[in-house]
Design goal:
By secondary structure, the protein is mostly helical. The chain is 79% helix and 2% strand.
Length: 331
């Protein structure tokens, strides 16, 4: 599907891609900060913020890109590549780099349950994808599952808080909370515009160079739209906020599958290209190994239920090796 961007010089398309990706990341980061500040104003606990609001906010870029592709009638291989590429880099860098900075320990039952919920969602997606098509009905199921997961996480956290955990809300003024909410809404509008420009420019570059759009989306777009998640995880790790790291990584991945993939599928169905099916296989295996490290009562790459520096490095290197293999074999 050709567009205005196909008639531009390649150098200009590349410049537009870099500029729109920068705006995408900056606007997503701005929306995150305002959304979190708003949540604090209403006394929402850090655990809830980490596992729901932060995870959803950092994934706005993926959702914006995929909805732009879907509504413009673009190649839905970009939708699949963006989701799977983003989820892979969230684990590889969002968790791997964070573990290299500080030991990642599953300290709360909420996080353990959320990780298992994420694994259940990826397993269900694998079942849906066996025929290489996510139908509109299956997209509806994924979208509904997001609501169910969020309700369950909220209930788990509420029970732990009732059992003795304190609410750390800072209680800002209502006027400041309203202003932050409006600013977050404005940032989302900018984010959507940047996402559309990114999709169109990258698609034009891929067509011009004869590169498969799926590969571009699974690498350049997937990594680019995950920068907010990676940055959030790194900052949380530096502050020792392990729950926030885990909540952000696995919560973002749930959001990507259920909404960034589920909503486009609900609108017009999504076809999985062969490389996408391979990536989904790898994502499941990758997830099983990481879940084993986080929840298993063993001593491997660290202490019981802990991923230390060597484990984090291994997780990151496996991701880098896999992406390098994809680029070489499809280059």
């Amino acid at each position: 599907m050709e567009s205005f961007f196909d008639g531009l010089p390649v150098a200009l398309d590349i410049l537009i891609t870099l500029a729109s990706l920068t705006v995408l990341v900056v606007s997503a980061d701005f929306a995150i900060s305002r959304a979190v500040d708003t949540a604090h104003a209403y006394g929402v606990s850090p655990l809830i913020i980490g596992t729901t609001l932060v995870a959803m906010s950092t994934s706005l870029a993926e959702l914006a890109v995929n909805m732009a592709v879907t509504l413009s009638g673009g190649d839905n291989a970009v939708v699949v590549g963006n989701v799977l590429g983003s989820n892979l880099v969230n684990i590889g860098f969002g968790l791997g780099i964070a573990a290299f900075i500080t030991a990642i320990r599953t300290r709360t039952l909420v996080i353990e349950r959320e990780i298992l919920l994420y694994f259940a969602i990826t397993t269900m997606l694998m079942g849906f994808a066996l025929d290489r098509v996510i139908t509109r009905q299956e997209g509806g199921v994924l979208t509904a599952c997001f609501v169910l997961v969020m309700v369950l996480v909220y209930q788990y956290a509420s029970r732990e808080r009732a059992a003795g955990r304190q609410n750390d809300g800072t209680g800002h003024s209502a006027s400041r909370a309203s202003r932050n909410a409006l600013q977050a809404g404005g940032a989302v509008i900018v984010l959507v515009i940047a996402a559309e420009a990114l999709v169109q420019s990258v698609s034009a570059i891929a067509r011009g160079a004869g590169v498969d759009e799926y590969i571009i989306s699974a690498t350049v777009i997937g990594i680019g739209t995950s920068i907010p998640e990676i940055a959030t995880s790194v900052q949380a790790a530096r502050r020792g906020e392990v729950d926030l790291v885990l909540g952000n990584v696995f919560g973002s991945n749930v959001f990507n599958i259920c909404l960034a993939l589920g909503l486009p599928a609900l609108i017009r169905g999504v076809r999985l290209p062969t490389p996408g099916l391979h990536d989904l296989y790898f994502l499941n295996i990758y997830g099983v190994v990481v879940t084993f490290l986080l929840l298993g009562d063993i001593r491997f790459f660290g202490r019981n239920k802990v991923i230390g520096r060597w484990g984090g490095a291994a997780i990151a290197l496996v991701y880098v090796a896999y992406i390098a293999w994809k680029i070489v074999t499809h280059g």
